[in-house]
Amino acid sequence: MFRISIALISLAVFALSISCGAEVPAGPEDIAERMFEAAQARDYDEMYTFMSPEMQDEINEAALAGIEIVSFTIDEIEYSHDSTEVELEYTITIKEIQSGETDVTSDDMEMIRTSEGDWIITEM
Which of 51, 81, 90, 111 could pair with 55 in a Cys bridge, judged by C-beta atoms 3.0 to 4.6 Å apart? Predict the structure, then answer.
């Protein structure tokens, strides 16, 4: 049910953006949510598209295979004075598959805006 709702919302947003005739760049919150959704779905190729090459090199897929992202929220976004960098605070609930233990963690990620206007995750 949740995935169907997400799919319908995504389709509506896509249709709206096409009908307006202009592509609206995704903001940092949207990029973070899409990255977490890809990680939650274990679509690591999609997850990497939201990260800098340096950040991609830090990801351990074997460790990711041992966990499940239960939920996540974006808590706060702080822009730099020139709006080219963002520190985004989030809360994530992770379940260890083997033990079944659940852990809730609050952390932050850093993002930068590329020269093309896209946001990418540079640090988590």
Answer: 51
Handedness of CA 8, 13, 17, 23 (dihedral sign): negative
Instruction: Give this prediction's pTM.
Output: 0.77
pLDDT, tens digit, 9 for 90 and up, residues 59-118:
988 888 899 999 999 999 999 999 999 999 999 999 999 999 999 999 999 999 999 999
d(CA 75, CA 2): 21
Question: To 5 degrees, how large is the angle CA 118–CA 121–CA 47?
Answer: 95
- Which residues, 6 or more positions from 21, have their beta carbon under 8 angstroms from its beta carbon? none
| Residue 13 host element (H or E) | helix 2-20
Q: Mapping DSSP to helix (H, G, I), strand (E, B) and coil, where does residue 14 land?
A: helix
- Report the alpha-carbon angle 112-116-121, nearest 5: 25
For the beta carbon of residue 84, count every other beta carbon within 10 angstroms: 13
